[in-house]
Write a structure and sequence with these properties.
The protein has 393 residues and is of the alpha/beta class. The chain has helices at 4-7, 19-24, 26-29, 35-44, 56-66, 99-110, 128-132, 145-158, 185-188, 201-204, 210-227, 273-276, 279-288, 295-303, 316-321, 334-337, 355-366, 378-385, and strands at residues 46-50, 70-74, 115-119, 137-140, 162-168, 171-177, 236-241, 246-251, 308-312, 327-328, 346-350, 372-374. The two termini are 43 Å apart. The relative contact order is 0.10.
């Protein structure tokens, strides 16, 4: 368990609470586990939230409401309509505006006693350690593997606890990594999965309530670390299945051979995490693939009556949302239904954004299909550039 000394601010300025703060935090103050001393720890704490999205929304809201004195937020994205189903810190009027500004506005309106530090940037190997140095605890609300490994390594190198959570569809997990006595993220996941193997929430979906559940768990763990109370999720991975409403935990051990937190670390500075996760090479490969067809070209050729077989590799429930009339064979069913395709015809595959259809094209080429192309950008690009009335999801 982390001690108070490990995470307390280097310079704790506040020694008292104002009358207004006493009234605001009165339900904390009457708890013996918090009291005046604990609330002052919370006020003097400095917590950095990576992301103001699904996890970052409830995380920041509850930390701000609890009275965390300095709350940092790192985000460079803008609010999109598709965010509003789960990113509760943003509202419809914020669409098109920076998430960072939207979140800061809500937090300051909710609690004027907290100090918001905004970092309008993409977290990178060049800036992570500089940003982390002024905070006691890092809360990771990111949704991609390169940033998760970056946050992990930066936390271990800078000696900051990493309060972690991740979500997908109906499932989530949470833990605390990077403490001296506990494992780090690399101890659990030494290597990232192959690019594209694990679909993102944008591709696979997520129950809008789930990030609220996991974000609140993160906020709870942060407050416990600040107070030095309870049993933090150090050395434990909490697994949440919202569909079954079950909570399980796995015990985690520190790997003595871990390249970052082990006894003889080989990674002592931040690396290129895009390259480590194989994403840069994948993007270069995709960019070099000249066989992709643009949505405008496909529309023109279809309107001209050319013999093109449009293959939709999305799921049936996605097809119901919107479609361009293609023949539906979900990517997972393609190997057993490949006999439905005529290799003599030109085939154009598409999905939501072009990722799954790219895999379909690779599979069909390996199966001997010569005239097969990927519709670049998927049905999202079609909605943007061909049919603006088509719903986007």
């Amino acid at each position: 368990m982390s001690t108070i000394a490990e995470i307390k601010p280097e310079t704790a300025n506040a020694t008292t609470l104002s009358n207004d703060e006493i009234q605001r935090y009165s339900r904390h103050l009457i708890m013996p586990e918090v009291g005046m001393e604990g609330q002052l720890k919370i006020k003097n704490a400095r917590v950095l939230c990576i992301g103001a999205g699904g996890l970052g929304s409830p995380l920041a809201l509850y930390l701000g409401a609890a009275g965390v004195g300095t709350l940092g937020i790192v985000d460079f994205d803008v609010v999109d309509y598709t965010n509003l189903q789960r990113q509760i810190i943003h509202s419809t009027r914020d669409v098109g505006h920076k998430k960072l500004d939207s979140a800061a506005e809500k937090l300051q309106a909710m609690n004027p006693f907290i100090n918001i530090k905004k970092f309008d940037t993409r977290l990178s190997s060049d800036n992570a350690l500089e940003i982390f140095k002024d905070f006691d605890i890092i809360a990771d609300g990111t949704d991609n593997f390169p940033t998760r490994y970056l946050v992990n390594d930066a936390c271990v190198i800078s000696g900051k606890p990493n309060v972690y959570a991740s979500i997908f569809r109906f499932e989530g997990q949470a833990s605390i990594f990077g403490t001296e006595e506990g494992p780090c993220y690399r101890c659990l996941y030494p290597e990232p999965p192959p690019p594209g193997l694990v679909p993102s929430c944008a591709e696979g979906g997520v129950l809008g309530i789930l990030p609220g559940l996991l974000g609140v768990i993160q906020a709870t763990e942060v407050i416990k670390l600040i107070l030095g109370s309870g049993e933090p999720l150090i050395g434990r991975l909490l697994l949440v299945d919202a569909l079954a409403m079950t909570f399980r935990q796995l015990k985690l051990r520190k790997n003595p051979d871990c390249p970052v937190c082990g006894t003889h670390p080989t990674i002592t500075k931040l690396i290129d995490y895009e390259q480590f996760c194989g994403i840069r090479g994948e993007e270069a490969e995709v960019a070099a693939d000249t066989s992709d067809i643009q949505v405008e070209d496909l529309k023109r050729r279809l309107d001209a009556g050319e013999d093109i077989f449009v293959l939709d590799v999305r799921e049936p429930h996605e097809y119901q949302i919107c479609n361009i009339g293609g023949h539906l064979i979900p990517l997972g069913d393609l190997p057993k239904r490949v006999g439905e395709l005529d290799s003599s015809r030109e085939i154009v595959a598409h999905c939501r954004s072009g990722v799954r259809s790219g895999k379909a094209v690779d599979f069909l080429r390996q199966a001997g299909f010569k005239k097969v192309r990927n519709m670049a950008g998927g049905i999202l690009a079609w909605a943007d550039r061909v049919d603006p009335k088509m719903p986007k999801y």
